[in-house]
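Q: What does the predicted 3D structure of methylmalonate-semialdehyde dehydrogenase (CoA acylating) look like?
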Amino acid sequence: MTDELHHWIDGARVTGRSGRTSEVFNPATGEVQALTPLATGAEIDDAIARAARAQTGWAATNPQRRARVMMRFAALIERDMDALAELVSREHGKTLPDARGDVQRGLEVVEFCMGAPHMLKGEFTDDGGPGIDLWSMRQPLGVVAGITPFNFPAMIPLWKLAPALSAGNAMVLKPSERCPSTALRLAELLQEAGLPDGVLQVVNGDKEAVDAILDNDTVQAVGFVGSTPIAQYIYGRAAAAGKRAQCFGGAKNHMIVMPDADLDKAADALVGAGFGAAGERCMAISVAVPVGAETADRLVEKLVPRIERLKVGPYTAGADVDYGPVITAAARDRIARLVQSGVDAGAELVVDGRDFSLQGYENGFFVGPSFFDRVRPEMEIYREEIFGPVLSQVRAESYDEALNLVCDNPYGNGCAIFTADGDVARDFAHNVNVGMVGINFPIPVPLSYHTFGGWKKSAFGDLNQYGPDAFRFYTRTKTVTARWFSGIKEGGEFAFKQME
Ligand code: NAD
């Protein structure tokens, strides 16, 4: 049976009016399990206008009361953890333990936002001049927008909405049309936690909805996560309209393996970070860079049996499964095409996952794991973000060559180095031009009280996601300079004021 999904407007499920829908698949079977309504510009404008009305009262609610909504929300997410994880897995296809991680890493940002009053309390200078005090306050922007990708249906909406709302904004959230149900459920939980209706609107849609958000003058800021071309497009259009924008894009994350690294641990890390979630993570390691021919040969020996042992299957098959299907048939076919392009370009396909088929799930979007050795930087499989279970190995002769490879790559989301040498690790962390670095740690997604953000073509705009940066992004600073005239000199002053 195909579910008809809805929007979430003013605290209620609202049926789409456009007549246009997008199919949500069960990626394990290939069947359509739901239809997402695709909002028109008019529906978007209406949701934004309603959000603006709700925002005034929410901004006037004191920060501690707003934080209490986050406290109750966190408790409800914990209460419903299993159900939320199941919702993620149902539409995305990732395994249940991985889906729990998706919810958990979002929950941690909600927990950080319980401390929003501390983040919002501003700065004060007593006696900046004779009888003159200055203070800066952080005020909400008004209505802000979140536009999120399919691959973390819980975590990324939570990264967007928790700081935005706890700072006193209203948010119009447009989740991925491919996995919209988790965001809709989170909105219901927020209502149960006491969020006033209208402060979070979840609107579903595609480019038409996104463009309506970008063109709406009420929207003050846009937080986007998705692929690089769309991130760059949204950043450009939002900035041209005078909005704040932070747009996080795609990635090609490298892991350097030094000759002194523990190769068993490096191989374990590569298999988990390369193939977990079918490679559909912006922090997936897609390029292994062993230094020296001997390291490379030994790494291949360690990797091949581990990759061949990987169990691919539906999340319903239980704890045995390492990763599930990719998101659509189009994604599966694109991955197969890219693997073929690697073969055609002369890379060595050591493990070939293309003919993978699972009995009973022949129409599912499963892709077996592939591993290429001797990939070169000019090949398409190196230049493109494959976003699938494909690991490439690029051999480097020296540490400097490996470092330069990472630095020359246009993406700069995450990277890692495996080594036993603290000096090399320190040099790498200092010199690499990538936003998040792991040392003997393959997927260095920072904890919620730090911040998340890539460099280069992995992010457009200013400030990172979550942590203290999120409160800077979702607020604007107003600075007051004040004095009281009792006992203060008479007469006007015409020179630019210096604080004597
Ligand atoms: P996507 O760019 O296709 O879609 C992201 C969002 O943009 C969705 O809500 C979608 O509806 C909307 N969108 C798509 N096409 C649009 C268009 N032409 N105009 C306006 N809006 C449009 O990304 P995806 O396939 O959902 O997600 C995977 C990508 O996201 C990967 O590239 C991955 O690396 C990246 N990602 C990045 C991060 C990060 O923090 N840097 C995190 C997760 C995922």
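A (community wiki): The structure tokens above were generated from the sequence. The longest helix spans residues 41-60. The domain at 3-249+458-479 is CATH 3.40.605.10 (Aldehyde Dehydrogenase; Chain A, domain 1).
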